[in-house]
């Protein structure tokens, strides 16, 4: 069967005919020493993706874009990915705006099917302008790496017109202090009649404390443990608690574990029958399932808990009348990452030094071996504790 007639398949199960696999692609590097062992386009793309397997969100996004282009090149254009020209990539961007024939390229009714399902398709519909731009940015990164690796002779996207850099817009996906108060009020009103209700309330309260006071990403909540809390004596001889977070891209940062955070941690641990303070190297997840299990919750499970809270608080707002509908709609859109943005915004509003906010949120690496930076850490802890509070 001709490749042009084959249905799209996920990259992990994709088989490409020899004449289209890129072994003799027109853009293949013919001189120099290749830095990867790939002999065809599929293996080269897999080698690039292998760099991101430890960061699930990045890997999923990069795989999606590389997979779409590879399938389009082989199935729609009938040419290897390593033979694509600059003009081909312009056609591909137009294709992203309207993947046709839709029956072949798009999931029915825009539904997401598992990758091993025969109904799986690489698209759910047309991509927005911003999504098209993001796709081309990712592909540019891929092509540049394949050139650097000695697999391709040149990057067909490097000829694209460079857009003028614009100042990034201000963060808009955050909760105002008034909306944040609505969320806290809803949490504190949660039922606590049964053991299960009390445990659920304690877990929700602790999760929101971590996300807001710590500014943690939801993946960081799922992947770190309570043994990462530790105590360190500051320059004034006072013990201060910290949370060492392994975050995005494998980078570590220190998050001030304020007295408020440690009180919430103790309350949550006691609810679960644990000592108030964690022990060094304790492997207990930061947030636990309801019941006896001590397995870490998945990112999806944590996300679901947060969305249920936002949805519940939004329903309460709507019940007050039409004038509250816009605020309720905004709250219903919120996600766990909004709490991270809210933490940064509220700290800035309270005039916490922006350099300290940057370090709290992990926007720059920390060095703890220098005495000067160690003293700066102490100031960051002190200002965070004084000015960034949850006030249950």
UniProtKB/TrEMBL annotation:
Keyword Cell division listed: yes
Keywords attached to this entry: Cell cycle, Cell division, Chromosome partition, Cytoplasm, DNA integration, DNA recombination, DNA-binding
Domain Core-binding (CB): 43-147
Compartments it resides in: Cytoplasm
GO cellular component, one term: cytoplasm
Coiled coil location: none
Gene3D superfamilies in the cross-refs: Intergrase catalytic core
Keyword Cell division: yes
Protein's name in the database: Tyrosine recombinase XerC
Organism: Paraburkholderia sediminicola
